[in-house]
Amino acid sequence: MKHRALAIALLFAPVAIGAGCASGSGDMSTQISFGADVARQGLWREAAFRFEKAIAANPKNARAHNNLAVALEATGDFARALEEYKKALELDPQDNYIRRNYARFAEFYTSYTRTTGKAAGAS
Amino acid sequence: MRPKPAALARRFPARAAALLLLAACAGCSSVSQVRLRLPLKPRLPLRGNEKIVLAPFLIVAEAEKARDKRLQNVDLQAEFHRFLKRQIEKKTKLEVAEAPADLKLPTQSLTELGRATEFWRSLGSTTGGEVLVSGSLEFKVEDRSGYKTEEYVSPINGQTYYRQVYVEQSGFLFDIVFLVFDGRSGEKLLQDEFKDFRQSGGSQRSDELQGLFENLFSLENQILNLFVAREREADRYLFTS
Fold first, then answer.
1. CB distance A13–B9 less than 8 Å?
2. Any CB–CB contact under 8 A between B6 and chain A?
3. ipTM confidence score
4. Which of B37, B194, B236 would you mutate first to test chain A, the one with the most A CBs within 10 A?
5. The CATH fold of domain B36-141+173-239
6. What percent of chain A shows pLDDT beyond 70?
7. Is some CB atom of chain B closer than 8 A to the CB atom of A11?
8. How far apart are CA A76 and CA A109, in angstroms?
9. Burial B125-141 (b: 16+ CB within 10 A, else e)
10. How confident is the model at residue B74 (pLDDT cuts 50, 70, 90)?
């Protein structure tokens, strides 16, 4: 029984450690976590600032780009939100959460630009 | 002499497993769902305090009305005007006025109504309306009953078959086309269409006025968004680690 537990743990060890390393530095992780906390309290500008810091620490982190996109969307900066969603999707095209966020945003943004007649920042 | 990993694992298997799973969890990310309130800009470029004149709408479902006695009790024009006036007055700072009661539309064609620039300019100058609203209204009982394919597992041989089942579905369909004109130039500023279908409850026959207002309230946000900014709720995923 004990040997089986060890075998399972050893089997998942490389994946786990790899994923931990891929999420970047501790600073980035702290910024994302803190940003998500303040975002849930509705403090979206502070959240955006935290997610930007997370991106500065690790520009290749798709999750930080996704979170920044959500924060920008919440503050009405839709053109930049679009850019960030695109970056997040480029970095991790398989992530279902990012894909769903982007799909929902794209639907909103299309109708928004249709009504205002401008697609600022849309590429 | 350092103990071999295999020997370590043999001595502390459970502890090693726990540590490795902890490392795995540190690598995992969790996600939470947040609700955003997204702004919807008004469809019309208004200052917000203009005078709006509600002109008559073309009623499309007259033939339907003759067929379905239930619709004969609904004065669609009056009910819709009342609803629109009340909503605009309640939720915007626009000044709303009704067009003169004896006003006749120059045509019964929606396309031609949209091109009747002279008529709208004249209405704008007589009423002082900066924005004129008209269009067409359709309200009808729609029968959407029909055959639907559904899966059926045979209790005899356990195999799955497909069979056609007749599904009864009827409800109220409301279709509005808005035509909005500039009261000074008579030019068309916007044309937009909103549709809503509300299913009436099963064997119980729903009241037609109730059906009409269910349609109208479900379109309320979209209708008001023609004139003023509105908000829309949207869910997004946020990574928390």
1. no
2. no
3. 0.75
4. B236
5. Rossmann fold (3.40.50)
6. 71
7. no
8. 11
9. eebebbbbbbbbbbbbb
10. confident
Helix spans in A23-95 (H): 26-40, 44-57, 62-74, 78-91
Question: Which range, of B83-87, B89-93, B146-150, averages the lowest pLDDT?
Answer: B146-150
> pLDDT tens digits, residue range B8-60?
445 545 554 444 444 444 445 699 999 998 888 788 989 989 999 999 999 98
Helix, strand and coil content of chain B, in percent to the nearest 5, comes to: 35, 35, 30
Among candidates A5, A15, A70 on the partner chain, residue whose Cβ is nearest the Cβ of B236? A70
Q: Identity (one letter) of the amino acid at A86?
A: K
Q: Is B220 exposed, middle or buried (0-12, 13-18, 19+ CB in 10 A)?
A: middle
Q: pLDDT tens for residues B159-183?
A: 888 888 888 777 888 899 999 999 9
- In this structure, what token pair is assigned to residue B90? 């309640």
User: What domains can you pick out in chain A, each with its CATH number?
Assistant: 44-117 (1.25.40.10)
A-chain residue closest to B227, CA distance: A115
Contacts of B232 in chain A (CB under 8 A): 108
Q: Where are the domains of chain B?
A: 36-141+173-239
Residue of B nearest to A78 (CA): B38
The tokens 């007649």 sit on which residue?
A: A117
| Surface of A (27-66) touching B: CB under 8 A | 29, 32-33, 36-37, 39-40, 63-64, 66
Q: What is the tens place of the pLDDT at every residue in A19-36?
A: 444 444 578 899 999 999
CA distance A112 to chain B (A): 7
